[in-house]
Amino acid sequence: MALGYKSRYAGQGRDMATDTLLxxxxxxxxxxxxxxxxxxxxxxxxxDTLLxxxxxxxxxxxxxxxxxxxxxxxxxxxxxxQTHLASxxxxxxxxxxxxxxxxxMVEQIHLLVYSAMAGVTVCVALQLALLVLWLRRKRSxxxxxxx
Length: 147
Prior knowledge:
Helices cover 82% and strands 0% of the residues. By secondary structure, the chain is mainly alpha-helical.
């Protein structure tokens, strides 16, 4: 004080010991505040890590569920296709049998038509032969009178 130093606490009832005590309390309070912030950040990071882990597990379960649904859908689709193919093959076999039967009927009809045509031809030939014989007969011979 000889140099004109005046305590800044002059008239306030404070001294350097009080100032040191306040600084100590403030430092302890700041350390506690920093520890609290660090604790909150650690907890938040742990919660974030936990949430990321849960989200990853959830995504893995979701992907497995989608894969399972796709596998089941593909299996059902393949079974449906196999059923439809079996039905189509059975229908094709029935159609082939009907077509073979129809072709047999057409062949039989052709044979009947050709037989009828041959019969008509024979009948016409016989009638022509009888006509020729009748025309060549002698007028006095009564053999072909019934014709």
